[in-house]
Amino acid sequence: MDLSKFKFTKTHEWITLDSNNSAKIGITDHAQKELGDIVFIELPSVGTVVSQGKQFGTIESTKAASELYSPASGEVTEVNNLVSANPQLVNKNPYCEGWMIKIKIKNVKELDSLSSSEI
Amino acid sequence: MAYISNTEKQKKEMLAVLGLSTVDSLFASIPASIRLKKPLNIKGSLSEPELIRELEQIASKNNSIDKINSFLGAGCYEHFVPSAVRYITSRTEFYTAYTPYQPEASQGTLQAIYEYQTYICLLTGMDITCASLYDGASSCAEAVLMAHRVNGRNKIFIASNLHPEYKRVIYTYSCGFDLDIKEIPCNAEFLLNLDFISRNLDEHTSSILIQNPNFFGGLEEVEKITQIAHQKGALVINSVYPMSLGILKTPGEMDVDIVVGDGQSLGNGMNFGGPSFGFLACKKEFARKMPGRIVGRTVDKDNKEGFVLTLQAREQHIRREKATSNICSNQSLNALAACVYFASVGPIGFKKISQACCDNAHYLYEKLSSIKDLVFPLRGIFFNEFLIKLPMDAKELLAELEKHKIIGGLNVTKFFPEINHAILVSCTELKTQAQIEDYSDKMSKIFRKEKINTKI
Amino acid sequence: MSNLIFEKGNFGREGVSVPAAAKPKKDIYSSIPDTFLAKKNYDFPYLSELDVIRHYVNLSRLNFSIDTNFYPLGSCTMKYNPKINEELSSMKGFVNLHPYQDQEDIQGALYIIHDLEKMLCEITGMNRFSFQPSAGAHGELTGMLMIRAYHCAKNNKKTKVIVPDSSHGTNPASAAMCGYEIVQIKSNENGLVDISELKKNIDKETAAVMLTNPNTLGLFEEEIKEIADISHAKGALLYYDGANLNALLGITNPALMGFDVMHINLHKTFATPHGGGGPGSGPVGVTKELIEFLPVPLVDKKDNQFYFNYDFPRSIGKVKAFYGNFLVLVKAYIYILSVGGLGLKEISENAVLNANYLKENLKKYFDLPYDKICMHETVFSAARQKQENDISALDIAKRLIDYGIHPPTVYFPLIVKEALMIEPTETESKETLDNFIEVMKKIYAESKTNPQLLKEAPHNTPVRRLNEVKAAMDLDLRWNPQKPFDNHR
What we know:
The structure holds 3 protein chains of 3 kinds.
Chain A: E1 6-8, E2 13-17, E3 22-27, H1 29-35, E4 38-42, E5 49-50, E6 55-61, E7 65-69, E8 74-79, H2 81-85, H3 88-92, E9 101-105
Antiparallel strand pairs in A: 1-2, 2-3, 3-9, 4-6, 5-8, 6-7, 8-9
Chain B: H1 8-18, H2 48-59, E1 69-70, H3 83-89, H4 92-95, H5 107-124, E2 128-129, H6 136-151, E3 155-159, H7 164-173, E4 180-184, H8 194-200, E5 205-212, H9 222-231, E6 235-240, E7 258-262, E8 278-282, E9 295-299, E10 305-309, H10 316-319, H11 332-368, E11 385-389, H12 394-402, E12 406-407, E13 410-411, E14 422-426, H13 433-453
Chain C: H1 49-60, H2 83-89, H3 92-95, H4 107-124, E1 128-130, H5 136-153, E2 160-164, H6 170-176, E3 181-185, H7 195-201, E4 206-211, H8 224-233, E5 237-242, H9 254-257, E6 261-264, H10 266-269, E7 284-286, E8 298-302, E9 305-309, H11 326-362, E10 378-381, H12 383-389, H13 393-402, E11 409-410, E12 419-422, H14 430-449, H15 451-455, H16 468-473
Parallel strand pairs in C: 2-3, 2-4, 4-5, 5-6
Antiparallel strand pairs in C: 1-7, 6-7, 8-9, 10-12, 11-12
Helix pairs in contact in C: 2-11, 4-11, 5-6, 11-14
């Protein structure tokens, strides 16, 4: 998996630019390993405004539950319903099929504060 | 005795393995300045015969309800507890086990609690429930906090005719949260003022909490209240008396969001107020916001049915300060008692008992309503408990009845100082015709005498 | 195929006989309007008393319990529950009491509450106790609410509570329910509170520091007096989680250590049964300064009569209706009487001796993160087994079940990887402990020679390892008459 275009937060989320101002968000392989089998994901609805560093959802396994923090600010344009219905997609393929939300980025410069390699 | 198994010889052997000569050296890390200098000043140790003598003597100073004709209710009731219930809850494998963290070693407890959860859902008409909370009062408080978690709103309306101790617990629990709690006033029949509800609930209201039957025994219009609340997007929390659900409509049928209550009447004795258990049942979309443990059904690796604690990721041992509640131990054995109770009496038996509670109370009401000096604000619309307004101080009347070994009811002044001439009277299925008639006869006698002496 | 009670019985089968109404009304519709009444019957099964007894007795036999198995669950104090306590607490004079009966009719009950309070004060050094909380966590919430009330009364601006990273989850959860922000401090390399971390993180906005001593690693916080001084200097109160009190009876007490508020778990230290998860009791004790905030009522004596005293205008209110889990109090009271003051010290001495004996013997096989004298419990790590043979603490726990031993607590405290927390208690004999050591030795060997055996354990139980993922995803939290059981996936 080519992660060169991915950026990472300290809280183990990733973000990658789709096109000009659209980005996909998900969690890292490290995060899904730590969580174990994921059983539930709570994602915001389309149109919700998210902020960098603020919570946008929750993720739950049998032994842990965590907040999901947005790597950037913007508006939710798409939600991956496949992952809501089948949370284990995130375990299987956290960087591809396991994407969670797409947002319209408010300020691309926010991505500069993120890391280029998985933390 | 201290129930210690090891002999002196064994203790010496163990110390030798540790390379120590005295037991006291095990406590070397405790600074001398905080070591106790003298033995604990506590009496004992007593042998079993001495304990029996001592406790029997103490118990004899209690005038237990089986020796009196009592009509006390107000949140704790004298109900039939089948011997099967006592037998099962005294099975040592149930009562000396711990919380079922290792499901393969605890299928007994887990399946029993799953069955308990089912019974509570069937009883209340709700989708899901947890494995029990501490009692009815704290369940109300937890429900209020849960509704706040669900919709993030801060205004709460609670019925002024909710059990006063339940109210107090809600206020205590809500101290640490930014909540604005207001009470809904009552009308002359001690029922909630629907007009007030319509006018005051709005888009900032998190929940409305009502009790049905209410503290004074009256029946609230739950359906109407629920409709009003839902129009404003507020959740409805209904505190119920489980025994009443044998003949009354279930909260689930009335679209209530969260149902709470105390399970004392279900296979648990009065126990001087504890232990009993609290229940909280709700619609399935609130599953992850519910406090307490939950048992779920699943399969093992051979596809055999099995039960586990589930949704633990909401709980304190995982989420810590972000948990849905801090609850750890609950009231598992008392919930088991309720489960065995339902199983023992069955659907027909439960309905029969519920009906008997209602019939007995109405029989008493009929007999008492011939006494012209008494006023009945509920006008006969109640389940098994009703308010009686008196022409004299309740204390006087109750003292008179006590001379005849009758506890006439609760002096309502205890909680409502402004109502000093009223008693709350309740009947259960255990009241016999003789007992009910004894009460009404003595009351008639008292009022025949009183007519001469008391100002009406 | 389901074994649920709801799939048993037969339509129309009679259950236990129930009392009929004194004078049955022919038609209840005349008393209660139709709109309030139920239209349908419940889907409860129709069972005979035999059906019920057989079902639940057989269920009970699927459980491990103290009376059937060695149960070294760390932090839970699974000591033997004496039978005389069960017998005497079920007397009519205790069970058949209504909480609103007149004072004169309940002098026996009030006597027990009053006397038990005196005993707990003597044991802990606290000045007063309230018995209202139903469990340890309930006691923690009560204690933290009182701390909040104390600070409010003094107009102190307090927003934070400090807990060590080894603390039990109920500590931060309870403090959060009081509106406090949680500040978690790292333990030092000895597993104890790091004094410099404490000094760095405590300030004048700290309301309280919540600790347990011995801590969750089973180690005594030797610097407790300094911790107390640092906390009090910043106007923070010290809260004692009494879960580990079994190590200290008659040896020291929380008041001497400098604690201001505490709770006790009667179902741990004072041998009242755990009941499969309650009922317990978590009485809350305080020093003089906090008495006025205790939940009401307290039991006091006047003119030779006991009474419920509600005269505490600054009380936090109530955390439960009525007075607490009274029958649990009676059991604890009987236990203390049967053991006596000297016996209590013997209890702690033997609890600590038993734990150290296990520690010394097991450290040959499993990593001991803190190799020093422990108190009543000890914590091992299966990290080496995980690394060498991919065997986790969970696998070891499941294999213990095959040997008829209830596993110790696993994955707690969070600061030890693959933690195994073992608390034997004083009621267990050397033979039982030696057997446990032998079994752990066997499991250690199995982890090297036959790890698959552990990974697929348990083998000898009514059910094999259960699918917890399915449980959390396909939420099946109750039997549903319309939905058949889906035992696939």
